Amino acid sequence: MSRIRHAIVSCAGLGSRLGLNSAKCLVHVEGKRVIDYLLPLLADIEDLRVVVGFQEAEVMEHVSKIRPDAVFVRNPSYASTSNSYSVNLATHDLHEPFMIIDGDMIIEPASFRRFLLAAECGESMVGVARSKTDEAVFVKLDESGYVQQFQRSPRAPFEWCGVAYLAGIHIERSSQFVFDDLSRCLPLKSYELECVEIDTPDDLKMAQREIHKYNFSFA
Amino acid sequence: MQRVAFCFDLDGTVIRGEILPHLARSIDLADEMQLLTTLTMQGAIPFEHSFRLRVKLLSEIPISTAQEIVSKLPLESNIIRFIQSHNSDSYLVTGNLDVWIKPLIERIGCQCFSSQANHSGDRLLGIKSVMQKEHAVKSLRERYERIVAIGDGMNDAMMLQGADVAIAYGGFRSPVENLVRLAHYVVYNGSGLCHVLDTQ
C-alpha cells in the first residue's frame, strides 16, 4: 500500500471539445480505454474516488470491474459545474492529504511512480509537463523548481498537467479552476510528469502517437 | 465535532442476500418469493403491500426456524467490522420482522429499527407495524447532527433522501437506478463503503 491514502480521479465532464459523445475516460486509445491506463498506476492507493457525471452508469460499470473498491462520487450538475466542484465533492470530507488526477490523462508509468515517491515526503506538489500546445495553463518555475505562477500567457516551457498531491490545501466548490486554489498557496513544489491530456481531437491523435513511447509493462 | 449516525439497510447490504427468499425456500416458495422481492426492490410493488403479502406466505414457518435460517446467512465482513467498531452510532434499518432477526441483531451488536410482529410463542400471528425507514432517520435527527444512510433498493429511497450523506450500495446486486439518482456516493463492495464511512 502507498503512504498516500486517497486519490481522486475526475471523470465527470462532458468532453465537449473532444466531441465523441463519450466520457473522455472511456475513449479508446490504441485498443484500451483512457482510464485503463490510469487505474493500474493507482492500484496501491487505498481509497480511490472517481467523480462521475456524464455517462456515469457506463463509467461506474467499467471502473468497478477493474477496481471493485472504488468509491464513485456523483456530480449530477456536471454540465454546469467546473472540475473544482467535482474535486470538492470528493475531498470535502477528507482530513488527510490526497492526490487529484484528471481522468482524461495518460501518464507514463515510471514518471508517475517517481511522482508518488516524491509526494510521500508530505509536501504539496504540482505535476507539470513539457508544454505541448499554446492553449495550456503554463507554470512559471523558480530555480528550485517551485511554481511561482500559473499563467495563460506567455507560453512557458512547462504546463500544469492536472495532477497534484495536496496536503492542507482545499479545493473550493465555487472556484472556476483547480489552479485558482493552487494559486493562493504559491510557491508550490513541482514535479515533472510525462503525460498527455486528451481534450481535443488533436490531443487524441497525439496520445495515439505518444503512447508507444510509454512503457506500461510494469504498471 | 458533529455526532454522526450510520443507518444500514440489512438485506443485500449487511447481509449478502435476502432474508425472505431464504425463508421461503424452507416451504418450497423460493422462486415466487424472489420474484416478489425483486419487484419490490425495483419499486414495481409498494414495499408495505408486498411485505404484508410475503409475511402472510411465510407465516407458517415457526419463528425459531426462521431465526435459525437468518442467523446462517452470510454477512459482509467489512461492514460488520465497521458497525462493531462504531456500535453506539450504527443502526440497522430494515423492513424485516423483529422476531426473525432478533438473534442476528444481538450477534452484530448494534441498535435496530425494524417492522414488528404479533406472535404467540413460536407462532407468527401477523404484523403489528411496518417499518417506514424515513421515520428512523427522523427519530435519529433528535440525537445526531449528521446522518449517513446506506441502501440498495427503492424501499431505502426515503431513508437516503432524509440523510445528509446518501450512499447507494451495490455489493450484493446493483443498486436500483432511481436510488443511485438520490445518492452522493455509489460503492460496489464493503471495502469501498468503509472508505467513505471512515471519513464521515
Would you kindly provide a written description of the structure presented here, covering whatever features stand out?
By secondary structure, chain A is α/β, with parallel strands linked by helices. Chain A has a single domain, classed as Spore Coat Polysaccharide Biosynthesis Protein SpsA, Chain A. Chain A is built from 6 helices and 13 strands. Chain A has helices at 34-38, 56-66, 83-91, 109-119, 178-183, 201-210, and strands spanning 6-11, 28-29, 32-33, 47-52, 71-74, 98-102, 105-107, 125-130, 138-141, 146-151, 158-166, 188-192, 195-197. Chain A has a 5-stranded mixed barrel. In chain A, strands 2-3 form a two-stranded antiparallel sheet. In chain A, strands 7-13 form a two-stranded antiparallel ribbon. In chain A, a hairpin with a 2-residue loop joins β2 and β3. Chain A is globular, with a radius of gyration of 16 Å. The two termini of chain A are 15 Å apart. The relative contact order of chain A is 0.20. The mean pLDDT of chain A is 93. Chain B has 200 residues and is of the alpha/beta class. Chain B has a domain at 4-17 and 74-197: HAD superfamily/HAD-like (Rossmann fold), CATH 3.40.50. In chain B, 44% of the residues lie in helices and 22% in strands. Chain B has 10 helices and 7 strands. Chain B has helices at residues 19-25, 30-41, 47-58, 63-71, 77-85, 98-108, 133-141, 157-162, 177-180, 190-197; strands spanning 4-8, 90-97, 111-120, 123-129, 146-151, 165-169, 185-187. Chain B has a 7-stranded mixed beta sheet, sandwiched between helices. In chain B, β6 (165-169), α9 (177-180) and β7 form a beta-alpha-beta unit. In chain B, α4 (63-71) runs parallel beside α6. Chain A binds chain B through residues 46-47, 49, 52, 56-57, 60, 64, 68-74, 76, 89, 93-95, and chain B through 170, 177, 180-181, 183-189, 191-192, 195-196, 199-200. β5 of chain A pairs antiparallel with β7 of chain B.
